[in-house]
Amino acid sequence: MSKTLHHRACHLCEAICGLTIETERLADGSQQILSIKGDAQDSFSRGHICPKAVALQDIQHDPDRLRQPMRRHGSEWQPIGWDEAFALVAERLAAIQEQHGKNAVAIYQGNPSVHNYGLMTHSNYFLGQLKTRNRYSATSVDQLPHHLTSYLMYGHGFLLPIPDIDHTQFMLILGGNPLASNGSIMTVPDVEKRLKALKARGGKLVVVDPRRSETAAMADQHVFVRPGNDAALLLGLLNTLFDEGLTRASHLPVNGLEQVRAAIADFTAEAMSGRCGVPAATIRQLARDFAAADSAVCYGRMGVSTQAFGSLCHWLIQLINLVTGNLDQPGGALCTTPALDLVATTSGGHFNVWQSRVSGLPEYGGELPVAALAEEMLTPGEGQVRALITVAGNPVLSTPNGRQLEQALEGLEFMLSIDLYINETTRYADLILPPTAPLEHEHYDSTFNAFAVRNVTRFNEAVLDKPAGALDDWEIFVGLAQAFAAKVGNELKPTKAPEQMIDMGVRFGPYGDQSPHKLSLAAIREQPHGIDLGPLQPNLGGRLKTESKAVEAAPALLVADLARFAAQPQAGEGELMLIGRRHVRSNNSWMHNYQRLVKGKPRHQLLMNPQDMAGRSLSDGQRVRIESRVGAIEVEVLGSEDMMPGVVSLPHGWGHARPGVQMAIASAQPGASANDLTDERHLDAVSGNAALNGVPVRIQAA
Question: Do β-strands 414-418 and 387-391 pair in parallel, antiparallel, or remain unpaired?
């Protein structure tokens, strides 16, 4: 028996913390994991680790995880060989497209797609051959407003300014809870120590949230805001900055600032106070404090992305950073300079080139809003979706109106899932193709290095042997591509392994062959603890992709949305506003099957302010019925002074008590799905992003 020490990053969330994993090879040749710890030598995460990383071994040994292709026969599942499975997919999809057209096949790619480099490099090798416009992903569940705003203002959806958290003197967070999420579109391991360091150097942390979250609890100031009305607060802040002469000139070329000033002239702090529930004096003082800081950054995340005015919010956040001189400045909001530069190697994107068939929702970057997926399956006519491919996703639990989506899935002619589990969505599939487990394949974080609070890079070697007969995710897509191309007579271009693609990208990147660093994949591999490439630096001016080569401060689409915001009706009598919440031990729906992550007190209850409970004669631990336009669920309620009056909170990703789900631990404490309440018609009208926060609900004793 021999022991080996491995170093790699955890890729289960965006923080990409460095790990030290000790394994032992037994006499029979098999391997076992002895320990998973934080890597103290990792310059980025500095030894930090959260419970999710330790659960990597639970994923590896989970008896419910699929280890070979499975074909459904009625309610039973039977193994099938890889080649037979590939041939079946090619036959069924080719036949459906021949009979009903290219768009009769839809694709949904889930959040883990960006955590697996084989999916990033090779999924389109197969999916691109289908040439369907019915492509969807988790992007339009939780982050599309980020990308659309950057596309409109900076010319590229990946030019996403990141908070320079290690150097700022004032951090304003709206709808983000990095202590639970480990950062989100802000790759920030060890965030608690970084926020404590901000305060220790005399800086200030302010959190705006309808719940006193874990991050809000450690802030210098917490401000309650009415769900869905963050834009009112942001408009009041921006208006105050203009009105009181608190703006600073930017070194960046900017178009349209006077147009912005005129457009928001009526949205004063006093006019917006009633909308957002924040006193006008608080709004004005917050603007003054932000502007007075030597450096400051405004950061908004899930709570402001997943609401009816998500794009408006992110536009206003960018403008607040811009007009205070904090955009593209140290201590403010800066774009990364990653070793693999997605901005340089991809097009800026496109928007609204086509629309969804039924509701006319706009595409972004070739994807339609996932809120339209169910209706595209259920609505008869030319172009109706009749087949679906899901990749590492569980949209029944993660997209709006999950019960409607279930109804739509039941009517499909064919469904393929690339997934590790028979879950709430994949139980409808005709065929499930499982890739190797996370520790059995290599990985490179092409996405999260681009969102990091420092410029870093690392290559993650496989820790465990690849099982005989198993395929990595990229090999599954190559097999599907070859089978489909042969079936329909396509000429398939040769492809390379993911690591070769990464090597080419790094060598042509900012630290590659033409730089003093001379970085290559081989050089990165020699540094198992990762490579620190330095703090974020101003670079936006030279990377702008707009036609004008200037920041477009007043995109017509966003300026026009101010009228919709001004006319928005408020919540009705007796209605409460539903929001979600994050937990450090959970990441969407798929981490509920690991005992070390779900042990302890249940975390899927509804949180409600005690005065709202008293008004409905409810008590702690009581089961309540929650109703929205689309459905109703029953859950246990808990009183919490951390909740703003009029607001209730339920985490998403639960609801495992559906028939046919083969996830034993998750099914034993199923909870209820918040997305049985969220409304596919409740959207950010600009981007089409689902509005999962600020959902009006009614609550009574069950």
Answer: parallel
218: buried, middle or exposed (CB in 10 Å: 19+, 13-18, 0-12)? middle
**Cα distance between residue 396 and residue 655, in whole Å:** 9
Which distant-in-sequence residues (6+ apart) come within 8 Å of 493 by Cβ? none
- At 175 the three-state DSSP class reads coil
Inside any domain, residue 683: yes
| Beta-strand runs (E) in 515-575 | 531-535, 551-552
Position 9 in a domain: no
Lowest mean pLDDT among 95-99, 402-406, 483-487, 601-605: 601-605
The count of C-alpha atoms lying within 13 angstroms of the C-alpha of 630, restricted to the half-sphere facing its C-beta, is 20
Q: How far, CA to CA in Å, does 188 sit from each of 162, 172, 366, 485?
A: 10, 16, 29, 42
Asked whether residue 17 is domain-assigned, the answer is: no
Q: Say if residue 573 is in the same domain as residue 554.
A: no
Instruction: Give SS3 for 424.
Output: coil
Q: Which CATH number covers residue 200?
A: 3.40.228.10
User: Does residue 242 carry a pLDDT above 80?
Assistant: yes
Mean pLDDT of the chain: 96
Q: Is residue 587 over pLDDT 80?
A: no
Q: How confident is the model at residue 257 (pLDDT cuts 50, 70, 90)?
A: very high
pLDDT at residue 585 greater than cutoff 90: no
Per-residue tokens: 3: 């022991």
Rounded alpha-carbon distances, angstroms, from residue 366 to 219, 232, 362, 398: 40, 31, 10, 21
291 within 8 A of 204, measured Cβ to Cβ: no
334 has which bridge partners? 162
Shared domain check, 229 and 378 = no
- Clarify whether residues 317 and 174 are in a common domain: yes
Inform me whether the pLDDT recorded for 349 exceeds 90. no
Q: What are phi and psi of 29, to 5 degrees?
A: 95, -10
Among candidates 116, 661, 156, which has minimal Cα distance to 391? 116
Q: Taking residues 447-469, report their average pLDDT.
A: 96
- Is residue 474 in some structural domain? yes
Question: What's the domain count of the chain?
Answer: 3
Q: Give mean pLDDT, residues 651-659.
A: 93
Residue 205 and residue 105 share a domain: no
- SS3 state of residue 173: strand
Residue 1 has pLDDT above 80, yes or no: no
Assess whether pLDDT exceeds 80 at residue 700. Answer: yes
Per-residue pLDDT at 499 exceeds 80: yes
Same domain membership, residue 148 and residue 134: no
CATH of the domain at 85: 3.40.50.740
Q: At what angle do helices 280-292 and 269-276 cross, to 10 degrees?
A: 110
Segments in 379-528 forming alpha helices (H): 395-398, 402-410, 473-488, 498-507, 521-525
Domain that holds residue 575: 568-701
Which amino acid makes up residue 292?
Answer: A
